[in-house]
Structure formats: C-alpha cells, structure tokens
Amino acid sequence: MATLAHGTALDEVRAKLEAGERLDFDDGLTLMESDDVLALGELADLARRLRGGTDDVYFVQNLYLNQTNVCRVKCKFCAFAATQKQEHAYTQTPDELVADALAQRELTGFTEIHMVNGENPHVGFDFYVETIGKLHDAMPDVHLKCYTASEIHHMTTLSGLSHEAVLRELRGAGLGSLPGGGAEVFADRVRRLIAPGKEHPDIWLETHRIAHALGIPTHCTMLYGHVETYEERIDHLLRLRSLQDETGGFLAFIPLAFHPENTVFERRGWKQSAGTDDLKVIAVSRLMLDNIPHVKAYWIMMGMPLAAVALHFGANDVQGTVVRETIFHAAGATTETEQKVSELVRFVRDAGRVPVQRDTLYSELRRWDG
Ligand code: V47
Predict the structure, then answer these.
(1) Which of 198, 278, 327 to mutate to test the pocket of ligand 1 (most atoms within 8 A of CB)?
(2) Atom of ligand 1 nearest to the CA of 331
(3) Is the CB of 219 under 6 A from ligand 1?
(4) pLDDT tens-place string over residues 22-68
(5) For the domain bounded by 36-367, which CATH number is listed?
(6) CA distance 36 to 15
(7) Among 183, 217, 216, 189, which Cα is nearest to 202's?
(8) CB-based burial of residue 288 (10 Å sphere; 0-12 exposed, 13-18 middle, 19+ buried)?
(9) Radius of gyration of the chain from Cα atoms?
(10) Global pTM?
C-alpha cells in the first residue's frame, strides 16, 4: 500500500511536469523523501528535455587558484582554512599568484581561472583589486571567475564600501563572474550550527542580486549532507529559484557534497554522503530549479564515474579540467586534482552524451560529434 501511495505521489509530480506546471515546496519534499532514485533520475531527465535540454554536456578548461587560506570565519565544515599563526597558513602576493598562474599556463591550456579564498583579515581591499588587475593584464583572454559572495561581503568590511562599489571596482579591474560558494544552506538553524561566523544568508542573496543587476553573471551552490533536513534543502533551492525569477543572472547550480575529513564533524564520526544521495540531490535540483539553465555534476566531489551517471539524473555539465583543487582534497576527497580533456570526453561519450567544451559563459568552443 505504502509503495502504491508513494508511486502515486511521484505520478502527480510527473503529471505537473508534463503539463508544464511549476513544482512547489510539497512536490520538492515528496521528491526528497522518495527512495526510488531511478524514478527520480528518469523524472529529472524528462524535466531537462521538456525544458529544451539536448544531449550536449559541457565542460570548461579551468585553473583553480586559492591565493590565501587565512580565514577569520572558522566554518565547522571547512578543512581548508587556517589562522595566520598556523604553520600551514599562506598568502600569495598578487605578483606571486600571477607568476604561478603563468607557470601553469606553460603546462596546460585554460580559458577560466576559478579562485576562492579564505576571508583574510590581514590584507586590504587593494590586495584584491591589484590581484584581479594583474591577472587580467597578464592573461586578458582568460575569464576571471573569482570570489564568493562571502568574500565580496568581507571586502565591504575591509574597505567600508558598499557591495555594489566593491563589485564595480573588481569588474573594472577585470573580474568576469562570481563562483557560487558561501551559500551553504540558507536556513538560519543550519547556519548557526555549521557556520555561525558567516554573514546572514540574505547578504549572500543580495550580493548576487547586485552582481546580476550590474551584468555580472554568477553561479550558485548548496552544501548538503550534514545537519540539514529535506525541508531545508528544498527551502534553499526555492530561495535560489525566486532570485533567478527576479534577475536571471545564475549560469549554473552546483550541489556540493559535504566532505567531513579533517573537520570537527569527522571527530563526531560523520561520513561522506552515499552516491545515491548525490544522485538524488542532482535530480531534485534539476526538477525544482526550472529556471537555472545548467546543473553541474562536480566530478572533483563525486568522482568521474558517478558524475557520468549523474548525466542521466538531470546534470548537463561536469565542471572542468580543474588543475589543483584544494578545498575538497583538504577535506578528504580522493579524486584526481586534474582531469585531461580526453578523459572528460571519454566519460561523457560513454554516458551516451555529446561532449562540448565551453567558455565560462557557455559559448561553445569545440564539440565531439559522432
Ligand atoms: O563555500 C568547503 C564548500 C565552497 C567543504 O561556482 C566544502 O562553479 C564540502 O565555491 N566539504 C567553495 N564542501 C567552493 C566553491 C565552488 C566549488 C565548485 C564550483 C563552484 C562554481 C564553486 O566549498 C564553500 C563551501 O560551500 N566547502 N569545505 C567540505 N569540507
């Protein structure tokens, strides 16, 4: 009987999808509460196609940089941050960072630099403007996707400037877009438990709203697999959806699975999410976020084999070649830190999809048809 009732609930969601009706909070909860992962995947793939999705699967060639791990915030989920006094604390000057990026460019091609950092209280706003300016001068053809909304907020406290003024100045120096980190889970309860020192979630949303109004595209994330409930996951997705209704400025959504190693949660015996939960989150995100064009299966987080499966659960992007990832590897990720283009192409093809190399703004650079 229970199975029949459950089947009926998913059938209702399917009927709404096929009728082009928007899914609501209760639908989201029904989906999250379902253990029929294959049915969720099938629904998500249907939603992707009904909304105009094709067999194209995107990836970008990118370089990851983390200029400093010094951070004032002490989020409980983070294994990357350090205080200035710790032995492994580091901060690269703008010149050191540029030299590092240029040296990497000798070794491998990339069209994007993806940079997120600790919120270092020992530098000034000029440090960030100078960094972006020097990176842009050294590599004008490379898109600079740098600084989470939390970092932008930190820069307002360093400088006394508004969020808009900070973003305008960074854009003037060469900033292209913002990564989606710092969102975590918006619910106050969760934030108090995992990131009590972080800005209020409304500030994260407002920073993205301002960026979009200035014509700066951004990405969005959800860090799942810790203390959050299914209700809080859906609430998070719906807050992103309503901002996207308003601005249309999000390029992609990236669910991030919590990695507990070297965090306080590891000492409490917590483990990383099971692959089935990763697939469920991808599928439900694709179903609920009907207005965000791309959902990424972040292979650094889930490994390339599961990311390839996720392409049948609503994802249409596998992120990038990602040279030197640090944040997830500090927290126990055992994936490679770099994926060759040929390997990404192989995985996408073997999943029955068409690999398309893109730039940050999703313009096509190359495709592997046939
Ligand atoms: O805000 C930190 C997360 C984010 C852990 O925009 C962790 O395309 C899991 O912004 N376990 C930073 N997650 C990374 C980020 C990002 C990553 C990939 C793609 C994009 C994009 C942006 O990483 C943080 C936090 O949410 N994080 N520690 C951890 N132990």
Answers:
(1) 327
(2) 30
(3) yes
(4) 999 999 999 999 999 999 999 999 999 999 999 999 999 999 999 99
(5) 3.20.20.70
(6) 17
(7) 183
(8) buried
(9) 20
(10) 0.96
